[in-house]
Amino acid sequence: MAKKSESPSGAALARVREVCHAFAGVEEKLSHGMPSFHVRGKMIVNFVDNHHGDGRLAVWCKCTFERQRELVAHAPAVYFVPPYVGVRGWLGINLNHESTDWIELAMIVEAGWLSVAPPKLARGEGANPVAKKPPPPPKRPMTSAKAARDGLARLTKICLALSDATVEADGIHATFHIGKKAFVYFLDNHHGDGAIVACVRGARTANASLVKKLPGRYTSPAYIGPRGWLGIRIDGKSVDWEEIGDRVAKSYAEVASKPKPHPKTSAKRAART
Questions:
Q1: Is the separation of the CB atoms in 165 and 176 below 8 Å?
Q2: What average pLDDT score do residues 71-90 get?
Q3: Which of 136, 119, 117 is nearest to 23 (CA)?
Q4: Which pLDDT belongs to residue 140?
Q5: Tens digits of residue pLDDT in 248-268
Q6: What global pTM score does this model have?
Q7: Are 116 and 195 found together in one domain?
Q8: For residues 80 and 76, what is the distance between their CA atoms, to the nearest angstrom?
Q9: Residue 130 CB neighbours (<10 A)
Q10: How far apart are CA 74 and CA 269, in angstroms?
């Protein structure tokens, strides 16, 4: 049997792991479902694959503002200012560009390592020996591509049965709008939570109660959960689509700028078919 070829993401991650684990004291963890590399609890590299649908296979590296500005200006197709951490001087590096310089990447990683490594570790004193090969990577949560496709198709049918509803795809996620306001999110393995969910608006107290009572069925999605969003898993063996249709309709009615006639009826009808 022919050996299955490695994906571009897997090949890039393997190479990043070799670079990072070449430095003493580096530990690998999962951060929002993606591998990140730390020295004594301080992150120096984060591996990202299509982060929020940006289409990039990249790393975010601890860097300085001066080096960040220099490289982004010199080669903007390869280097970029990443979200969240870019304002602290971190540098984004595209890994699948023909001009990507892996030697330069290793030098940037080394500079980041030196900036946080304790002096004794940087001098090689008291450090664990550097492994010849990277240790086994931590297990990354995965979801079923088929379950995601089927769930999104059924959720789309429910949402678009409502008047003036639209859908916007964002990588593996999707957002359903009425006007400019979102009333449902479809999230697949959002920040590595290993779940496929439909997110609807609801009262925060009621949402928290549901998540606590039935954690296998309901979730509090990252970032938006505290703002009144409830995640309903749609990747289980028994999904109550009528309940989802009812919650979708209520979420729609809550954000609609003008009352729409009988949203609950049309959403529940779509959920049953």
A1: yes
A2: 95
A3: 117
A4: 74
A5: 999 999 988 555 545 556 666
A6: 0.62
A7: no
A8: 6
A9: 12
A10: 56
